[in-house]
Structures are given as C-alpha cells and as structure tokens.
Amino acid sequence: MRRNRSANLGLAAAVAAAGSALAAAAALAQRIDNAVAVFAALDKVTAKISRLEVPLNQTATFGALKITPRVCYSRAPTEPPKTTSFVEVDETQLDGKEKRIFSGWMFADSPGLNAVEHPVFDVWLTDCSQPQRTVGPRPPQGGGPAASEPPPPSDADLPRRRRVPR
C-alpha cells in the first residue's frame, strides 16, 4: 500500500509538471504583426455584406463609417487562432461632423464580443493579412508598449468560453 501511495504521488507530480510546461508553452506563443486588417461590413438596409481590407493606420469608408485599424495580430497556423485588432470607428453625421462610436479591440473568433453598435451598419474583424514580423511574448506588465501603439489586449479583454449545462 505504501508503494502505491508513493507511486501515485510521483505520478501526480509528473502530471502537474507536464501541465505547467504546456501552460508555459501556450503563454510563449508568438503573435504575428500584420500590415492589413480584414473586416466584414454589413449594411442592414440593403443586407449587403462587404469585405474591407484596410492597411494599418489608414482609413476605409463604409457608408457613414470610417474604419481605422491601428494594429492587427494573428498567430501561426500551428497555434490556436487568436486574431485581434485595435480599431477606431468614426461616424460622419448629417451635419458633417465626425463622432467616435468605437475605439477598442476586436476579436475575429468572437465578433459579437466587441462589436460596433450602429443602427444601420455592422463591422467586425475577420482576419489579418500580409504578415510583417513575429513579435515575441508580451513583456511583463512593468514594461509598457511604444507610445504610438495601443497596449495589447489583457487576458481580461479576451473572450471567455463557458459551458452551457444540458
């Protein structure tokens, strides 16, 4: 009995070490910095969906909306998908003034999480294209990003999946 208990403790320790190694490997997944953000845009009046490929820091117009992506990150095809983009959306109003209606992170795998709320138009991130460089894992919270780049999304910003009981 004593031998089985120590064997079980050893097995538990090995499983815990393997689990922490997998968690560390997932945390070190590198993101890819892309030059173009790809959006789908819906005109609710005509029911027309358009594909918008917008280079970073440039603005695309869809109806009364002006969409400007600032960064677009993806991962290698061998990694779990996690395509994110920091986007600013302005609306041109009837008097010609522009009003910011959205500024934040969009997630391609959860388009409804941070979506543009507008009575006539919907815009959501679908992909990033034209990979530029691979960026290492996020720096510790003490080291901030460059002033021209928005901070990467924190784990609190990422979509959570929950199980629905049957």
Keywords:
single chain, 166 residues, alpha+beta, 7 strands
Q: How is the biggest beta sheet arranged?
A: 7 strands, antiparallel
Strand percentage: 35-45%
Residue share in helix: 10-25%
Give me the strand/helix succession.
HEEEEEEE
Shape from CA axes? globular
Quaternary state of this entry equals single chain
Classification by helices and strands = alpha+beta
Q: What would the average pLDDT be, to the nearest integer? A: 77
Rg: 21 Å
Low-confidence parts: 18-26, 139-147
Number of alpha- plus pi-helical segments: 1
Record the SSE blueprint.
Layout (H helix, E strand, L loop, with lengths): L1 H26 L3 E13 L4 E8 L4 E3 L2 E11 L8 E9 L5 E10 L13 E15 L31
Antiparallel strand pairs: 1-2, 1-4, 1-7, 3-4, 4-5, 5-6
Describe the fold and architecture.
The protein is globular and about 45 Å long. The chain has one helix and seven strands; from the N terminus they run αβββββββ. The chain is of the alpha+beta class. Mean pLDDT is 77; it is low at 18-26 and 139-147. The longest helix has 26 residues, at 2-27. Strands 1, 2, 3, 4, 5, 6 and 7 form a seven-stranded antiparallel sheet that branches. The protein has a domain at 31-135.
Write a concise synopsis of the structure shown.
By secondary structure, this protein is α+β, with helices and mostly antiparallel strands.
